[in-house]
Specification:
Layout (H helix, E strand, L loop, with lengths): L6 H31 L28 H55 L17 H50 L5 H32 L6 E4 H7 L9 E6 L3 E4 L1 H17 L9 E9 L2 E8 L35 H11 L3 E6 L5 E6 L5 H6 L7 E2 L1
Helix pairs in contact: 1-2, 3-4, 4-7, 6-7
Length: 396
């Protein structure tokens, strides 16, 4: 059978014809069997007459009867029925091939339309859809599924383009700053040692900022690739070691109950660090009235980390954008300087949670600030046995 778009049509045609031929042959055989097994009428009476030829062509000496005449006629009729039915079956088989070809083409017509439309769709026009009309059958369900896949691909491509553009901008900014500092220092022929030293320190600070950004990008990429290692760790221990410290920061309220997790310790630690850092960084600038609350424990056997903080009021429609790389509240697209961070914290949190099969939910607080809940899959009885005891609430 040749390969190509029409090979399925030919296979369907042969299948239809074979089914018709098999059904016709079975019907013919069943009819012939019923006709051959039927008994002659019992009202037929015997009578004497001239002999009938036997199987060897000789005249039979037995006296002929009406029953013998009826059986000979019946055998001739059965033979004629078999021949005529076979001819009819052969003619109808040929007709079934033609009808099967037409019906297969009609059935496969929507598939050819979808194939042609799919070939026209590429990375440049992912907005196009198949949009197959007609009844809600299997073909339309397949077309709708393909349209859903195209929609997800379009969203992924757009997100990738935005990420590449934002990452390029973020990586270029420190380089531009370094070049500007060096050019200004070289353009001054009377620059003192102190001035040059200050310029070098600024260049070094810009390089360190670029290094932190690259490290965050690598962590994000590693999280999106899935887990490379799995170990039993406790969220309570990790949070205990990474609690925000310092007299100048907000008040920290921590209630750390055992929450065993099976996953990558480094990625989970990065998740905790990013959440704690964001809670402190995006808080009230003044110490009085600012706070951060952390809670770890299990909910229906699943380890949970909840963290909330005070801060400015966040519009609910902008919370989802916080998990996009380099996104900020309002019209700000990329990060600023100082306390604004790298703009990848919550993106890494979402990627780490997804890599572990968990979820992240963020809800703005009406009085200001943000509450984030991270839920990870349950680890089973072994994790419960290996988990350390819960730590009492701690306030710093």
């Amino acid at each position: 059978m040749p390969r190509g778009p029409r090979s399925i049509r030919r296979r369907l045609t042969l299948l239809y014809s074979a089914l018709f031929m098999g059904a016709g042959a079975a019907l013919l055989g069943f009819t012939y069997l019923l006709a051959s097994q039927s008994e002659p009428s019992s009202t037929i009476r015997s009578f004497e007459g001239p002999g009938l030829p036997d199987g060897a062509g000789r005249m039979s000496t037995a006296p002929p009867t009406l029953t013998m005449y009826a059986e000979a006629l019946r055998a001739d009729q059965l033979h004629q029925l078999l021949v005529e039915a076979g001819i009819a079956l052969a003619v109808m088989t040929v007709a079934s091939v033609a009808l099967g070809w037409l019906m297969a083409g009609r059935v496969l017509a929507p598939l050819r339309t979808m194939t042609a439309a799919a070939r026209r769709i590429s990375a440049e026009n992912l907005g196009q859809r198949l949009a197959v009309p007609g009844p809600d059958d299997e073909l339309k369900a397949m077309a709708d599924t393909f349209d859903d896949v195209l929609a997800r691909l379009e969203g992924a491509f757009e997100a990738q383009k935005r990420f590449v553009a934002n990452a390029s901008h973020e990586l270029r900014t420190p380089l531009t700053l370094q070049q500007t500092i060096v050019d200004v220092a070289l353009a001054d022929p009377d620059a003192s040692v102190a001035t040059l030293r200050a310029a070098c320190l600024r260049v070094r600070a810009a390089g360190q900022e670029q290094e932190r950004l690259i490290d965050a990008l690598l962590t994000l990429a590693r999280s999106q690739q899935g887990l490379q290692r799995r170990e039993f760790v406790d969220l309570a221990e990790i949070v205990r070691e990474r609690l925000p410290q310092g007299d100048g920061g907000p008040r920290v309220d921590a209630e750390l109950n055992s929450a065993p997790v099976l996953g990558d310790p480094q990625l989970i630690e990065r998740l905790v660090v990013n959440l704690a850092d964001n809670a402190v960084r995006h808080n009230h600038p003044e110490k009085e009235g600012s706070w951060v609350s952390l809670w770890t424990g299990t909910d229906r056997g699943r380890p949970v980390l909840r963290i909330a903080n005070s801060g400015r009021v966040i519009p609910p429609d902008q919370v989802a954008g916080l998990f996009q790389p380099f996104r900020r509240l309002g019209a700000e697209r990329v990060r600023g300087r100082g306390r604004d961070g790298l703009g990848l914290g919550l993106s890494i949190v979402a990627a780490v949670a997804a890599a572990h099969g968990g979820s992240v939910v963020a809800r703005p607080r009406p009085e200001g600030g943000l509450g984030v809940t991270v839920t990870l899959p349950a680890t089973g009885a072994r994790a419960d046995r290996d988990a350390p005891a819960a730590m009492p609430p701690r306030t710093t």
